[in-house]
């Protein structure tokens, strides 16, 4: 990303600067002392984005699931007790023997401890949670990168909308001056009323386009607020001397290889295969025996007449259980999870192919953007020359006002197209890095260095306010 912009890229920038200088100065003066830049807004999104916060909570839940499964392999200790009152309503007495107590209180307590010695199901469930954690961490990384690309796209879409709006404002001003000149020429009888009507129609169209551009800019700001949960008064603009160069490495296959190694969606899908394989292993473990060590202690006492002391006992041993036949459930569960394993393998292959296609497409778009920016820059220069020639022809009578208006529109369309092409390049380059799995704060910091000293303010004048600034008023048609 170090090769300089072609020399002719600065020429349309100077043309645009002269045309838009009044509006740019007004925008700069209205902006706060410190505007938010891309990196600051991206960090806000990483802290406040609701989708990312949900993914982090989901990751915490999956990690807690590991402790849940591991608990079954650790010692299990339980205690139980009972206290009861027994009353006997009918009793038989034996001559010569004392009458028994009809009311007896009993108390008992049991302590029991078990330890799994061999439990394949529980052990493999722990392994599955480990693989689920790996998968979820990749999914979290994919969500983080998704937030970064969404924030970056929203940021540069604001800047794109702003530059397009500035071009449309400049176009409206230029056509308004042309309309005023046509009216003055009509007043002194130099041109026909049709030329005034042509200029008025062109101005009305330019004004409508400018109003739509203002609306688009406001909508873009709202999209950024949704991602970060914050509203920004102003943001830094892209510098004019943006280095437009082919992506590095300049090899599409190298980007594909990088994506296969780093793309979190690919890695999450691959981890999903291991999760499904663990489910098959758990199902197969249903055929294996379970071995547990156990120890228990029992204590019992009562207050019956003639009985002294208490009863207690303890037991230590090893228990083994072996499933012999479960109605075919275990075998059916194995088949079920085997099909799910095959499904996850196909999902991985689909994700792999999709990522390869997206990386190749993104790489192609970035390389094409480089040529497009150069072509758009030259188009601005050419249209400026065409407008100058058309104006000169209009002054000597060889061209009419329609030709001038068309040349005006062509110039500012070219200016807007150049601005759009520059932002296409930046967004497509960031998208390529996302698909390759290398989009992070460090990558955004590199792009953040492209931002210049100028900033744009969110506050936009309404249509009536802008008309007043531009000294546009309704005049009766002559």
Question: If you had to describe this structure to a student in words, what would you say it looks like?
Answer:
There is one protein chain. With 478 residues, the chain is of the alpha+beta class. The chain contains eleven helices and six strands. It is elongated, with a radius of gyration of 39 Å.
Walk across the major sheet and give the strand order: 1-2-4-5
Number of strands: 6
How much is the radius of gyration in Å?
39 Å
Helix segment count? 11
Sum up the overall morphology in one term. elongated
The stretches of 5 or more residues where confidence is low (pLDDT under 50) are 1-33, 468-478
Major sheet: size, sense and barrel closure?
A: 4 strands, antiparallel
Task: Set out the fold topology.
Blueprint: H1 10-30, H2 38-48, H3 50-71, E1 76-87, E2 103-118, H4 120-187, H5 193-228, E3 234-238, H6 252-262, H7 264-284, E4 290-302, E5 311-321, H8 329-396, H9 401-435, H10 441-448, E6 451-457, H11 463-469
Summary, kept brief:
The chain has helices at residues 10-30, 38-48, 50-71, 120-187, 193-228, 252-262, 264-284, 329-396, 401-435, 441-448, 463-469, and strands spanning 76-87, 103-118, 234-238, 290-302, 311-321, 451-457. It is α+β, with helices and mostly antiparallel strands and 478 residues long.
Task: Name the descriptors.
two-stranded antiparallel sheet; four-stranded antiparallel sheet; 11 helices; alpha+beta; 64% helix; 478 residues; 6 strands; single chain; disordered C terminus
